[in-house]
Amino acid sequence: MKDGEHMKKLIVILSIFLLVTGCSTKTNEPKEMTFDERMLMLIQECISDYNTSVAADSIIHTLDTPPLPVEIETITQIESLKDLKTREDDHSNAKYIAELDLNPYKMVFHIYGECDSFWACGEASFEVDIDTIYPDNPKLASTKTILDELLAKDRKAFDYLYGIGVELANQESEKYPGYYQVINTAEIENPTSIDQIKNYVEQVFDINFISQFYAEVFESESPIYIEDNGVLYCIQNVPSITDEQVFNTSLIISSKEIENQILVDIVSSYGDIIDPELKRIIITKTENGYRLGGLY
C-alpha cells in the first residue's frame, strides 16, 4: 500500500472514531428537565413520601407538615400533571400550585422553585370540601367534649409557660437583672417553683409534647423563669406568641383511635367563614386523663 493511501485510510479511521466518540459523549449528557417534568418529579416524590410511613413521620415532625387525613391510608401516584388541577396564584409567591382530588378531600401542592427535592421548595396541605362538612356530628360528640375541655385551657397554659398573664413584683431582682419575682397567677397561687409551672401545663398537654419547649423556657441562656431558693422569678419582657389557631369543635371532620391516641381532623373558622384546610389535633390518653399531644 502506498504511503498516500495509507495516510488517507488512517484519516478516515480517525474521523470515524472521533465521530463515534463525539456522538457517545452527547448521548451520555443528562437531559435538562423542562419545568413541567420537574414539577411532576417533585410532586411524585411528595406523594411517595406520604405513602411511606417512615418518611411521612419524619417529614411531619421535622417540617410541621400535616399528616394524611385519617380516612385516607394511601394516595394513588400520579402519572402526569394532567392528573392535577392547577390553581390560580393565591399571593403565596409559589411558582406552581395544583390540587389532587381525593374526594371529599383535596391535596394541595405549593412549589416555590425548581429544586431537586419537594421538601426543599414545596409545601403540601389537605383541604376538605366544606359542602360535605356535617356540623356537630353526633358520632363525634364524645371527641368534641374532650376537645372543648382541653382547648378551653390550652392557651392559658401555654401563656403561663411563656410568662404571659403572670403577676410580677414591682421591684426588679438585684441578683437577676431583668427578672421579677412571680407573685401570683390566676391558676397557681403563690408559685415558688418551676415544677409548679410544669405541673399546671402538663394537666393540659402531654409531657412528651410540651417538654420540647422546656429547654427554651427553663434552661436557655435567657430563660423565661429562674428558680432560686424557693423564689420564682420571671423575665419582664416576655416573647410575643403568634395568634392562636381558632379551632371550631363543631367542625370536626373525622377522628380515629390508635393505641393511646385519638387523631382528630378539624378545620378552623373565623365568624361565618370556614377555612377548608385540615388541621390535626392529637389527643393522648394518660393515666391522669386526656391531654393534648400535638397540633399540626
Secondary-structure content class? alpha+beta
Shape field: globular
Through-space gap between termini: 83 Å
The major pleated sheet works out as: 4 strands, antiparallel
Indicate how many domains the architecture comprises: 3
Stretches where pLDDT falls below 50 for ≥5 residues? Answer: 10-14, 16-21, 23-27
Number of helical elements: 9
> Could you state the order of secondary-structure elements as H and E?
HHHEEEHEHHEEHHHEEEEEE
Q: Roughly how much helix do the residues carry, as a percent range?
A: 25-40%
Q: What is the typical, i.e. mean, pLDDT?
A: 88
The number of distinct β-strands equals 12
Portion in beta strands: 25-35%
Radius of gyration: 29 Å
Widest sheet: strand order? 1-2-3-4
What does this protein structure show overall?
- The protein has 296 residues and is α+β, with helices and mostly antiparallel strands.
- It has three domains: 35-128, no CATH class; 138-149 and 243-295, Nuclear Transport Factor 2, Chain: A, CATH 3.10.450; 150-235, no CATH class.
- It contains nine helices and twelve strands.
- The protein has a four-stranded antiparallel β-sheet.
- The radius of gyration is 29 Å and the shape is globular.
- The model is unreliable at 10-14, 16-21 and 23-27 (pLDDT under 50).
